[in-house]
Amino acid sequence: MQLPESPSLRPTPSIGGIPAAGAVIADDAETGGNTAAQQLKGQLQAELAEWRALHHKLEPAQVWLEGRIAFSQEAQKADLEARKLELDRKTKEAVGRIAQANADIAALADPRSDASTYHTILARVLQSPNVGTLATSLP
């Protein structure tokens, strides 16, 4: 005699360890939460630390470059101002990434988050540029 398959016991499809959209997210009693969310949170925290370190390097460079622009000759000023614009763009991106990572970590900690929230965060993490690529192209 074969028992009918229970809909609650069917495996749910997943993308990168994150349950598919609309799937019920069950907490793991042994680990104290959803392990996929914890892994994603760990990855976000690592990226957050990298973005903060990059921002920590960019901020003093901005101040230094502003001082150089203020006391430079006209011939150098255009080049320094172009470098300053690039540095400002990278600093703005780092600040935005830090804010987004903080928001994503808060969303992962929110018990009201569902699978679509996890998918959105996962897609953002997978599509985000590596901190190293931004840091190596500093002026």
Low-confidence stretches: 3-12, 21-29
Distance between the termini: 72 Å
- Helix content estimate: 55-70%
Structural class: mainly alpha
* Strands side by side in the biggest sheet: 1-2
Q: Nearest-angstrom radius of gyration?
A: 22 Å
Descriptive notes:
The protein is mostly helical. The protein has a domain at 34-129. The chain contains four helices and two strands; from the N terminus they run E-E-H-H-H-H. It has helices spanning 35-70, 74-109, 115-127, 131-136, and strands spanning 14-15, 18-19. A two-stranded antiparallel sheet has the order 1-2. The chain is elongated and about 60 Å long. The termini are far apart. 13% of the residues are buried.
Helix and strand layout, with pairings?
Blueprint: E1 14-15, E2 18-19, H1 35-70, H2 74-109, H3 115-127, H4 131-136
Antiparallel strand pairs: 1-2
Helix pairs in contact: 1-2
Structural descriptors:
139 residues; mainly alpha; 4 helices; 65% helix; elongated
What's a quick, concise take on this entry?
The chain has four helices and two strands, in the order ββαααα. It is mainly alpha-helical. The chain has a domain at 34-129.
